[in-house]
Specification:
CATH architecture of the largest domain in chain A: 3-Layer(aba) Sandwich
Strand order of the largest sheet of chain B: 2-1-3-4-6-5-7
Order of helices and strands of chain A: EHEHEHEHEHEHEHEEHEEHEEHEHEH
CATH class of chain B: Alpha Beta
Distance between the termini of chain B: 55 Å
Strand content of chain A: 15-25%
Number of helices of chain A: 12
Structural class of chain A: alpha/beta
Largest sheet of chain B: 7 strands, mixed
Radius of gyration of chain A: 20 Å
CATH architecture of chain B: 3-Layer(aba) Sandwich
Distance between the termini of chain A: 47 Å
CATH superfamily of chain B: Thiamin diphosphate (ThDP)-binding fold, Pyr/PP domains
CATH class of the largest domain in chain A: Alpha Beta
Radius of gyration of chain B: 17 Å
Oligomer: heterodimer
Largest sheet of chain A: 7 strands, mixed
């Protein structure tokens, strides 16, 4: 039975995971996502699952690898630097086609950075993040409810494509409290992963999950298959479009910043300015076609991010040959405000540099 | 005249040529692991976590469910496997570089948590697959590709004695060091592997067995010389024996 409760974004993610049938959580403390492991430590055992505070992010992601290899819905969460530590194993999972869900509640970087909010991990999130040719499905919620819903979706997609899937939030999303409608924990479908999970070879041929291929042609064949799979993920593109039909300028922003920019766009609309918003919900796959269609109809673009300019590359690639995108970045380390986004959109609309 | 069957094919061991060098002991250890899995009826519910190094292709020889762990992370992967499926039998098979160098944190913490997993640790005092570099268990004075003048205590430190370290952790139910240089030692090693498997089955904690092994190629010795070196140099530095064997209780 659903209930509407007042919780932080981090807790919404944890609720979403339990409702999606996640039964193993492995994690290491790091700000600003600590409410996720703290919630899991309390509620995962009650849901019949396992919680382990790992000795490091390296260990945590490898515990996820092991648990997911058995077909069990499992996850970890961290922030920027911890996610950097996990990249080797995320690449292994992509290569071995072992699904997993991992959450990055971004903080400021580079290096130790700060514990405030930022979006500096966009490149890492959308380019695979580790070594070799692979991508992770990347979902970018902008509200507590969306954090809950997209975490549930992340498990569906991870197991559908047998690929690591990332929920990419930030400190704003993780720490802000708002009403979220949640369902109680639900079990994983018993037959999910029945054709590939490791549970002992009793009564069937044994199975091996690996990513090493030394024989001539084997690794090339894997890469061809993986690329086909990544292309097929285009079916999962999700985005929100607001006032784009008659807009002269389309603002493009994701996650918490997408939500703040939405406020700015609404205020400008109320003043009669023809501006719209396109908010990618999936960052990989990126809503390329939606942007390209807008470019065909003559729109101009302004990409707004809480970093020094990362997603703007994807916007420019999407509209290449037809249009360009200006960029406005709130500085990592500073708290972003609607007024600065509103001013930037107005400058760009009036033909100036954002 | 009655025939008496004294040995039959080990079902869980693949009937194929291995990639190991002449005189390498991995083949002996893997045969014993397979024999124990069969004799204890564990193969059908076993999940083996393989590691990085010469044993990376273990799944080509051991015919059970296997998952490949990144370098050093097998105990963490095994933790995930066991926590997700406590009813399965979970083992890792790791070399000295994998377990005692890059994976030191993972083995220490998995052991300290008392993970119900069994760890087979093959110690040949050298990095094999990468070409004979210094390992965390390389002996003082031993020349390797990255300790060309011989390992020096004051700059590289002493070799890690993993079986002793493991036996000092409360989560470890069984810790032993064995060798495979003689028939007697091989028999002791198999007994140790059995016991390391049994403590997991009895829910007592981690089972850990260190096995001193030869790497003739990287030791730059003939197989016979390498085998002799185990008794002459390795065993004096790494004494054999059962360091810990709790019969009851359990880690938590």
């Amino acid at each position: 039975m659903s209930e509407r409760i007042f919780i932080k974004g981090n807790e919404a993610i944890a609720h979403g995971a339990l409702a999606a049938g996640c039964r193993c959580y492995f994690g290491y403390p790091i700000t600003p996502q600590n409410e996720i492991p703290e919630f899991m430590a309390k509620h995962m055992p009650a849901a019949g699952g396992a919680f382990v505070q790992a000795e490091s992010e390296l260990a945590a992601i490898n515990m996820v690898l092991g648990a997911c290899a058995t077909g069990t819905r499992s996850m970890t969460s961290s922030s920027g630097l911890g996610i950097s530590l996990m990249q080797e194993s995320i690449s292994y999972m992509a290569g071995s086609e072992i699904p997993a869900v991992f959450v990055n509640m971004m903080r400021g970087g580079p290096g130790l950075g700060d514990i405030n909010t930022a979006q500096g991990d966009y490149y890492q999130a959308t380019r695979g993040g580790g070594h070799g040719d692979y991508r992770t499905l990347t979902l970018a919620p902008s509200t507590g409810q969306e954090a809950y819903d997209l975490t549930r979706l992340a498990f569906e997609l991870a197991f559908k494509y047998r690929n690591p899937t990332l929920v990419l939030g930030d400190a704003i999303l993780g720490q802000m409290k708002e009403p979220v409608t949640v369902d109680p924990p639900a079990p994983q479908a018993p037959d999910e992963a029945a054709d590939w999970r490791l549970n002992g070879c009793d009564g069937r041929p044994r199975r091996v999950h690996k990513s090493i291929y030394l024989a001539e042609g084997e690794l090339a064949a894997l890469n061809i298959r993986l690329q086909e799979k990544f292309r097929s993920m285009d079916a999962e593109v999700r985005y929100e479009a607001l006032h784009t039909e008659d807009a002269e300028l389309v603002a493009v922003a994701f996650g918490s910043i997408g939500r703040i920019v939405k406020t700015a766009v609404r205020k400008l609309r109320a003043k009669g300015h023809k501006v719209g918003l396109l908010r990618p919900i999936t960052l990989y796959p990126f809503p390329e076609q939606a942007l390209r269609d807008l470019a065909y109809s003559g729109k101009r673009f302004l990409t707004l991010e809480h970093n020094m300019g990362q997603m703007v590359d994807d916007v420019r690639l999407a509209v290449r040959g037809l249009a360009d995108s200006d960029f406005f970045g709130a500085l990592p380390g500073n708290m972003p405000f609607p007024d600065e986004f509103e001013a930037a959109i107005l400058r760009a609309l009036q033909g100036g540099h954002a | 005249m009655n025939e008496k069957l004294v040995f039959k094919r080990t079902v869980s061991l693949a009937d194929r040529v291995t990639h190991y060098c002449p005189g390498c002991h991995h083949g002996i250890v893997q045969r014993m692991v397979a024999e124990c899995l069969d004799e204890m009826d564990l193969a059908r519910k076993a999940i083996c976590v393989t590691s990085i190094g010469c044993s990376v292709f273990l799944y080509d020889y051991l015919l059970v469910d296997c998952v490949e762990a990144p370098h050093g992370r097998a105990p963490a992967v095994a933790t995930g496997v066991k926590r997700a499926r406590p009813g399965n039998f979970v083992l890792t098979y790791q070399g000295d570089g994998d377990l005692a160098s890059i994976g030191m944190a993972e083995i220490m913490h998995a052991a300290n948590r008392g993970e119900r997993i069994s760890v087979v640790f093959v110690n040949n005092t050298v990095y094999g697959m990468t070409g004979g570099q210094m390992a965390p268990t390389t002996l003082i004075g031993q020349r390797t590709a990255t300790s060309p003048a011989g390992r020096c205590r004051s700059t590289e430190g002493m070799p890690f004695k993993m079986a002793e370290i493991m036996s000092g952790l409360d989560g470890v139910a069984y810790a032993a060091r064995t060798a495979v240089d003689s028939v007697k030692h091989i028999a002791q090693a198999k007994k140790a592997i059995r016991r390391a498997f049994q403590v997991q089955q009895d829910d007592l904690g981690m089972g850990f067995v260190e096995i001193l092994s030869a790497c003739p190629i990287n030791w730059k010795m003939t197989p016979v010389e390498a085998n002799a070196r185990i008794a002459e140099e390795l065993i004096p530095a790494f004494p054999l024996g059962v360091l810990k064997d709790i019969k009851t209780g359990g880690a938590c």
